[in-house]
Amino acid sequence: MRLLPVLLACCLAQGLSAGEAAVTAAAGSKVDDFALLDHRGEFQQLTRHHDAAFIVLFSFGTGCPIVRQNIAEVQAIAGDYLAKNVRVACLASSSADDLKAVKDEAASLQVTLPVMMDDTQLVAEALGITRTAEAIVINPKDMKLVWRGPVDDRVGYGAQKPEATRRYLREALDAALAGTPVPTDAPAVKGCLLTFAQPRATHKPDYAKEVAPIIEANCRTCHQKGGVAPWAMDSHKQVAGRGDMIREVVRTKLMPPWDADPSYGKFSNECGITVAEARTIVHWIENGAAPSVSDPLALKKPKPIPEWPLGKPDLIISIPPQNIPATGKLPYRTVEVPVDIPKDVWVRAVQIKPDHPEWLHHAFAFVGDDDLEIPEDIAADPRVQRLLERFKGQPLPPELKARLDKGPRGLTSFFASYVPGLDPAPFPEGTGKLLKKGTTLSFQFHYTTNGTAGTDKPKFGLYFAKTKKDQPERELKVTSAFQLRLDIPPLERHSPASAERKLVKDSVLFAVSPHMHYRGKSMRFTAIFPDGKEEILLSVPRYDLDWQRTYLFAEPKTVPAGTRIRVDGAFDNSPSNPDNPDPNKRVRFGDQSWDEMFIGYLVYADAPTK
User: Fold this and answer.
1) Residue 69, SS3?
2) Residues of the chain with pLDDT under 50
3) What is the pLDDT of residues 85-137, one digit of tens each?
4) Which end of the chain is more exposed for a tag (fewer CB within 10 A), N or C?
5) Rounded Cα distance, 366 and 364, in Å
6) Domains of the chain
7) 3-state helix, strand, coil in the chain (%, to 5)
8) With contact defined as beta carbons under 8 Å apart, do 423 and 349 qualify?
9) pLDDT score recorded for residue 413
C-alpha cells in the first residue's frame, strides 16, 4: 500500500518532547480504582463495573490519525461483545485536549462510547499508557490487567491494509472469556505519543511549599480537632501516614466532597481542588510523601471552631436531647419546638448546631406553612388517589387530611437546613425570612451511628434583623421541582426521573440544591427561558447523600417571569451502587433514606422592582 507520510508526521510530532513518562504496567498487574467524568458529563468509576466480565479501555486523542482509523473497530467490538458482558470505554489523557475538543472529535467520528476525561493524566500514568490507540483489558473481579496492545494490524505509521490479518483485541477477549491464556505476540502499539504535563518521575512536590498549602486551604476546615472529619490533618505524620488512602479518595473523587461538574456554573462555596492540585497531592504520595525541613500543618494551628461562627444568636432554641445508639440504622426523627417570640420578626441568618456533628447526617427545620403551595401536586400522586378512593364517601382520617393538605415535609420548601461541612452564612443581602409569632418549628433529624453511643443536644440559633438597615427588602423563599411518581425497578442501573417548576414572577436565583436518597445517581438543573433558550445551572454527575450541598451561585441569576427550571436525574438501584441498601427491592417515593425522593430545591427571591 502507499505510504502515509502525514500519518507518520502527526504521530511523531506529538511525541517529540514527551518522553516515556510512565512505566508500562504488565499483564497481571494490579489496577487501582479511579473515577472520571466522561465527555457527556456522566460519572464513571471502574469498580462500579465489577459485574462486567471484562472492561476494555481505549486510549483516545484528538487529531490522531491512528485513533480515527481504529475507533470504528473499537465501537464494533463494543457492540459484538455486549452480550458477553464486556464493556468498552475510551480514555482521553492527552495534555493537548480539552473537553470541547474531545466533544467535537467524538461527534465528528460518531463515537457513542463514553470518552473519560483524564485531565490530571493520573489514570494514564498509573496504567502505563504512553500512546493513543492502545487497548487495555481489565478483569474487574480481581482488578488486574489482563492484556494490552494494539486493536489490530490494519493501520501502521506508514501504511494501512484493506483488512486486518490479526485482530489482537478480539483475540485477547476471546481467550479471556474462554478462560485460556491470552496471546502474547502482539507488537508494540503504534499511536501518537502522549506528552505528560508533569511526569511523575520528575514532578516531586515539596511538602511544605506545595502540599501543605493545598491541605490548609481545602481540607482543614473539616479535618481538624472538633471538625466533622474523623481525623485531623495536623502534621506531616498524620497526612503521610494516611497517604495511600488520600491518594485513593482523590483518584476516585470522594474527596474533597464537591460533586458539581466544573463545566457548568460558578459557585461561591466551591470546595474542590484543581487539576494541578490533585496531581501535586498524588505525585507527592506516589514519590514517597517526603517531609520538609519545616511542618506548616504542625506549626500553624487552625483557628478554633467557634461555637457560633456568626456570633451569638439573638435567640437560641434548645432542642430535646437525642440518644444515639452505637450501631444500627436509624429512622428520621421529628421534633416539634414552639418559638417564644413576642411579635413577628424578620430573620437574617440561622444555624442548626449539633452537639456531636459526627452523628448528624443532615437536618431540616420547617415552619407550619412551608408546604401549602402543593396540594394539587400531592393529589395527582396515584397512591393518594387510591387512598381517596378507599375513603370515598367517608370523612378522611385527620392525619391523612393534614398530610394531603400540607404534603411531605420538605417537599417544596424548608426554613433552615444542616449538612456536614456547610459553613453558616447570612441570607443574601437585602433578603430575609419572616418568622411569625406563635410559630412552631418542626425539626427533622437524620442521625447515623459510628460505633460510639451517646447523646446529642442540638440547638437552633436565629439572628434577627433588628435595625432599620437590616430590614430585608424582599423575602427569601425556597421552592422546588419534585417528582412523586417514582417506581425504580430492582437491579436497575439507570432509572431516569424529571421534574419542573415554573417561576411566575421575575426572580433572582441564589442557590439550588439536589435531594435524593441512597439510590440517587445524578441530577441536573436547567433554566428554560420564555424565549426558548436554555442554560444548565448545575450538574451533579455523582450524587452523594452524605454531602447534601446547597450550591450558592457566585453571581445571583436574575430570570424573567415564565422561566421554567427543569430538573433531570437518575437513580442507580443496582449492586454497582455502593450505597444501595437493597438492590433487589422495588423503590418508590418515601420519607426514609431507604425509600427515595427526587427534589430540586430553588432558593430565590422576587426580583427588585424597577
Assistant:
1) helix
2) 1-21, 371-383, 404-407
3) 999 999 999 999 999 999 999 999 999 999 999 999 999 999 999 999 999 99
4) C
5) 7
6) 5-178 (3.40.30.10), 207-299 (no CATH), 306-371+408-475 (2.60.120), 477-610 (2.60.120.230)
7) 20, 30, 50
8) no
9) 76
Cα–Cα distance list, 126 to 79, 121, 280 (Å): 28, 9, 15
Judge contact between 23 and 136, C-beta under 8 A: no
Q: How far apart are CA 448 and CA 411, in angstroms?
A: 22
Please report which residue ranges of 42-121 form alpha helices under DSSP H.
65-80, 99-108
| CA dist 459 → 255, 315, 335, 353, 356 (Å) | 29, 10, 12, 5, 11
All residues at 6 or more sequence positions from 119 whose CB lies less than 8 Å from its CB, including other chains = 275
What are the cell numbers at 141?
Answer: 473481579
Q: Please name the amino acid found at residue 132.
A: T
What's the pLDDT at 377?
41
Residue 262: exposure state from Cβ atoms within 10 A (0-12, 13-18, ≥19): middle
Residues 6+ apart with CB under 8 A from 598: 482, 483, 486, 497, 499, 515, 516, 520, 567, 569, 589
Using alpha carbons, select from 447, 376, 440 the residue that is nearest to residue 592.
447
DSSP conformational letter for 426: P
Cα–Cα nearest to 320, from 459, 462, 453: 459
pLDDT value for 180: 98
Q: Measured between alpha carbons, how far is residue 221 from residues 2, 278, 350, 543 in Å?
A: 63, 18, 20, 22
What does 122-153 look like in DSSP terms, one character per residue? HHHHHHT--BTTEEEEEETTTTEEEEEEES-S
Rounded Cα distance, 265 and 553, in Å: 7
pTM: 0.89
3-state DSSP assignment of residue 266: coil
The residue to which cell 460519572 is assigned: 43
Bond into 256 cis (ω within 30): yes
Distance, CA of 414 to CA of 550 (rounded, Å) = 13
Residue carrying the nine cell digits 402543593:
374
Residues 264 and 254: their CA atoms lie apart, in Å, by 20
Pairing of strands 86-92, 54-60: parallel
8 A C-beta contact, residue 186 and residue 149? yes
Question: Which letter does DSSP use for residue 232 in this model?
Answer: -
- The candidate with the shortest Cα–Cα distance to 577, out of 514, 497, 515, 491, is 491
Cell 505524620 locates to 237
